[in-house]
Amino acid sequence: MPTALPVTVTVARALQIGQQAGLPRLDVQLLLLHSIGRPLDQRAWLISHDDALLTQQQLKQFEALLAQRQDGVPIAYLTGQKEFFGLTLQITPATLDPRPDTETLVEWALDVLQSAQQPRVLDLGTGSGAIALAIQSQRPDAQVWAVDQSQDALQVAKANGAQLALPVQWLHGSWFEPVVAAQLAPFDLIVSNPPYIRPDDHHLPQLRHEPLQALVSSQQGLHDIGVIAQAAPAHLKPGGMLLLEHGWDQAQDVATILQRAGFKHIAHRHDLAGHIRCSGGRVS
Ligand code: GLN
């Protein structure tokens, strides 16, 4: 016998089921909107239609999504989208779920670019394209290139670029390899949110649904940051800058890496929790 689901479930009852499953109200609202095929910005609709009935299929989908969320799958993968810097991005498990903290890096990049006209910008390890697209959306005059080693991630990024009609140029390969291959001229700004989590970080199990290659780096999480910092000066114009996101406790190590790579005027930016989350420097 199938389990005895209630025959009819209202929006109000569905929200209750979700919260009884121990999930935050916002998560439950987003999953319910997605299950009933409404845009995710219509949370007010749920309140004004709390007696609307779900179809059996909507209820089944909602319950399946609740179970996946309880298992730690990011909301962005379940709904297929995420807001980042005012843009709606399509997200799949091929890319990292863009974090609000990464908007700090975008804000810093936009500050740096304020004085530059038609700047040339490079985003390394673009994933869903979040950083590159956010910069391009704010600076239509910029020429933005974005690199990723994962073809699957690049498909997501390209689709986002097309959907948002933003002319970011996508390159496949590892860090600067496709930049060298395409013989691209030096940039005003290079940005990156590379993998920076230590292989033994005890938070990793919580992130198990996201691509490991976008999260984890060897040498205490600093290997990829080191590779990027070493190679970046050869791809920057005089006075050009490299801005990196890194772990909450890596600022000192990243500053040392940047100095050794020849960067000057090392500076930092804090994330929403007040940790130094981004560091960068300038080449002379
Ligand atoms: N900020 C992410 C986290 O700590 C990691 C992103 C990354 O490794 N680039 O979950």
As for the CATH topology of the largest domain, it is Rossmann fold
Per CATH, the class of the largest domain reads Alpha Beta
Helix count, DSSP H or I runs of 4 or more residues: 13
The whole-number mean of residue pLDDT values reads: 96
CATH architecture of the largest domain: 3-Layer(aba) Sandwich
- Which cofactor or ligand species appear? glutamine
Q: What is the strand tally?
A: 11
Which structural category fits the helices and strands?
A: alpha/beta
Number of domains: 2
CATH homologous superfamily of the largest domain - what is it?
A: Vaccinia Virus protein VP39
Give helix and strand order, one letter per element, not per position. Answer: EHHHEHHEEHEHEHEHEHHHEHEE
Describe the structure.
The chain has two domains: 11-71, no CATH class; 81-282, Vaccinia Virus protein VP39 (Rossmann fold, 3-Layer(aba) Sandwich), CATH 3.40.50. It contains 13 helices and eleven strands. The protein has helices spanning 11-20, 25-35, 43-48, 56-70, 75-79, 103-113, 130-138, 151-164, 177-181, 212-215, 218-221, 223-231, 251-260; strands at residues 9-10, 53-54, 81-84, 87-90, 120-124, 143-148, 169-172, 187-192, 236-245, 264-270, 276-282. The strands form three sheets. The chain has a seven-stranded mixed β-sheet with strand order 7-6-5-8-9-11-10, with helices on both faces. α8 (151-164) links the parallel β6 and β7. α2 (25-35) packs antiparallel against α4. Glutamine (GLN) binds at residues 96, 99, 193-197, 207, 215. Residues 110-200 form the Methyltransferase small domain. Pfam families: MTS, PrmC_N.
